[in-house]
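ok, trying the design again with the full structure, not the truncated one.
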């Protein structure tokens, strides 16, 4: 669905697609560490950084800023396909996960807190902190090491009627595998219908659709720098029932308010740029009459293109062997895993992951080492690995770039 001509147009909309301002020409396969930034978001950031006015004043500039934030929130709600609730920005995706989890745990009495071993420490650390602080029972559902994901059946076997708060990772930034969010949430609700369900969607956001109406959860968090915007803020959606628990608020301030202090209008505006980009892309690939229809069309096209890229990386392109063709190369989550979202994580017998990444970097192919530390040890330690190579792609990457990666691999392994 993304043709070569369309791919050229897509790439023209992003900053530093083919070259690093410090290194020079390079292929960017480090998207899980932070995606490329839309040129529109760069321009919007500069424009709003120069505006001295704040919201909440009685002047034309302040009124305009309020309108811009309202329009961005409405666009974000459509992007999330949110069933009511509200969208707001915070310091970062991690900070927002901590806030949502804190509100859910402190707002419920007793009962079980439930998560999974596949999760990023952003959610696991928050749950563990408040479980210890309040003496709550925090349980972890084991993920499938071979598949690199956790299933709805695994959650169903672990959830109990007294489960009060549950967390779900939508996509792993280490394995690259997406979880069946709607099925996991349904499995939780089947046993504990009043449970508050909070989702880490940070890795998933750039790779596939988000449909919170179908998911039936209470909180969903993304980091915009991983979905074509910039660093410095996070975006969260919260349900009305989570808000009703009473997040911290200024005394005498607006009720049901999650925001503190003066908002960065530029943050909202750059996220609107992200939604506008999905809208535009959907129109190019035959999207429908509404913005949500076009967002869905864009998501379908993104998944299809990234599937083509990962298949090429695993099984080869042209006369170049794929990673699956090498003896001694092990792909985390398995080679033919339909849950994969634009990411291949691997290790090779007799080759240190750091050495492979260094060899690729010398040849202008940017990848990343995942170490068995507090970020990735939950995935790599059960596999008996100290480190692995993470190659993370996005829909603006090309098969030619995959071929360049495989050419370096052929000289390295």
């Amino acid at each position: 669905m993304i043709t070569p001509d369309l791919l050229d147009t897509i790439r023209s909309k992003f900053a530093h697609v083919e070259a690093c301002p410090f290194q020079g020409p390079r292929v960017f396969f480090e998207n899980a560490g932070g995606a490329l930034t839309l040129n529109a978001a760069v321009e919007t950031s500069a424009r709003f950084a120069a505006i001295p006015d704040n919201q909440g004043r009685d002047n034309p500039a302040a009124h305009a800023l309020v309108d811009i934030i309202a329009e961005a929130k409405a666009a974000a709600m459509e992007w999330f396909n949110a069933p009511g609730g509200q969208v707001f920005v915070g310091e970062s995706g991690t900070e927002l996960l901590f806030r949502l989890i804190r509100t859910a745990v402190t707002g419920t009495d007793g009962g079980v807190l439930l998560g999974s071993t596949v999760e990023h420490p952003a959610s696991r650390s928050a749950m563990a902190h408040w479980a210890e602080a309040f003496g709550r029972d925090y349980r972890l559902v084991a993920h499938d090491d071979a598949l690199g994901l956790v299933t709805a059946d695994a959650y169903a076997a672990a959830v109990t009627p007294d489960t009060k708060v549950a967390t779900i990772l939508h996509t792993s930034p280490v394995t690259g595998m997406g979880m069946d969010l709607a099925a996991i949430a349904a499995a939780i609700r089947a046993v504990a219908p009043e449970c508050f369900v909070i989702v880490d969607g940070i890795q998933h956001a750039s790779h596939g659709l988000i449909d919170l109406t179908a998911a039936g959860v209470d909180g969903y968090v993304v980091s915009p720098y991983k979905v074509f915007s910039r660093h410095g803020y996070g975006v969260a959606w919260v349900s009305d029932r989570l808000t009703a628990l009473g997040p911290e608020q200024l005394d005498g301030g607006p009720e049901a308010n999650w925001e503190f202090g003066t908002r960065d209008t530029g943050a909202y505006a750059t996220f609107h740029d992200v939604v506008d980009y999905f809208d535009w892309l959907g129109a190019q690939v035959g999207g429908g009459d509404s913005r949500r229809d076009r967002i869905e069309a864009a998501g379908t096209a993104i998944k299809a293109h990234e599937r083509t890229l990962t298949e090429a990386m695993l099984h080869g392109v042209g006369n170049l062997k794929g990673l699956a063709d090498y003896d001694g190369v092990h792909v985390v989550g398995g080679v033919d895993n339909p849950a994969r979202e634009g990411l291949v994580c691997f290790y090779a017998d007799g080759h240190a992951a750091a050495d492979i990444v260094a060899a690729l970097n010398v040849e202008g192919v940017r990848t990343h080492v995942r170490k068995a530390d507090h970020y990735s040890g939950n995935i790599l330690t059960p596999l008996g690995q100290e480190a692995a190579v993470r190659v993370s792609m996005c829909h603006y990457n090309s098969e030619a770039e995959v071929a360049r990666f495989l050419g370096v691999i052929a000289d390295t392994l």
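Keeping the full-length input from now on. Residues 208 and 299 are 5 Å apart (CA to CA).
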